Amino acid sequence: MTALAVRGATVGFGGRHALTDVDLEAEAGAITGLIGPNGAGKTTLFNVICGLQRPDRGRVWIDDADVTRLAPFKRARRGLARTFQRLELFGLLSVRDNVRLAAQVSGDGDPGAAADRLVRRLGLEAVADTRADRLPTGQARVVELARALATHPKVLLLDEPASGQSEAETAAFADVLRDVAADGVAVVLVEHDVPLVMETCSRIYVLDLGRVLSVGTPAEVQRDETVVAAYLGQLT
User: Fold this and answer.
1) Distance CA 122, CA 200 (A)
2) What residues pair up with 5 in beta bridges, in sequence order?
3) Which of 50, 59, 91, 219 has the most CB atoms around it within 10 Å of its CB?
4) Is the CB of residue 80 less than 8 Å from the CB of residue 154?
């Protein structure tokens, strides 16, 4: 089932197109990758999906409902959640309270219990009472994921969530992503850690200069000579 669809997204800044006729679909229960060089338009596309950027052309659907003109908070109510490249935690609050607050705002009947469940699920018990601004970046990104999950999303957008994580943290994070998708969530992953993308995603979109360069399975994308020339070849 398609949980998220973008059709013909086009965004221009000062005469330059950041996105040109971009299409994307994300299925419930699957992890969809979005990769490409810096400046390819990945974050702009996320902003279009979230409602932070109005497209010049194009439409966005969540669960077959056209949300193109909805404000970000209304899209959140329809089941959209997101993490950001730059950490957006409440630094003076504990890990548990960051997650509890998200559950409370989303209308959870018992936000404290919801926070405790997510703290356990994501292996954050040891730092549950630690202030968020005292966490290393890798752990802080896991807290951001926990906070996003506290809103019970149908569609989860993750913007470079493995940045700052150790190899062991990234391996554990991959297991968490698979677990989240197995619950029926459509996960869309922007990430420069190519092995993580290739190991977790069932379908990958490659952006370059604001256009979709290639779409396919990990194996298909890795065999695409245009992708290797534009992006993957830079990483080897």
Assistant:
1) 17
2) 25, 61
3) 50
4) yes
Cα angle: 144, vertex 170, 108; to 5 degrees: 25
> Which of 9, 81, 19, 24 has the alpha carbon at shortest distance from 204?
24
**Does the global pTM surpass 0.85?**
yes
pLDDT band at 132 (very low <50, low <70, confident <90, very high): very high
Per-residue model confidence as pLDDT tens digits over 17-28: 899 999 999 999
Taking a C-beta distance cutoff of 8 angstroms, is the pair 60, 67 a contact? yes
CA atoms within 13 A on the CB side of 121: 20
Q: Tell me the mean pLDDT in the region 58-73.
A: 96
In whole angstroms, give the CA distance from residue 1 to residue 64. Answer: 10
SS3 of residue 191 by DSSP: coil
Computed from CA positions of residues 91, 96, 101, 106, in that sequence, does the dihedral angle turn out positive or negative? positive
Q: What is the mean pLDDT of residues 120-136?
A: 95
Angle, CA of 68, 24 and 16, to the nearest 5°: 75
What's the angle, vertex CA 115, arms to CA 127 and CA 138, rounded to 5? Answer: 40
Give the Cα separation of 53 and 72 in Å (integer).
10
pLDDT at residue 235 is higher than 60: no
pLDDT of 233 reads 66
Rounded to an integer, what distance in angstroms lies between the CA atom of residue 124 and that of residue 140? Answer: 10
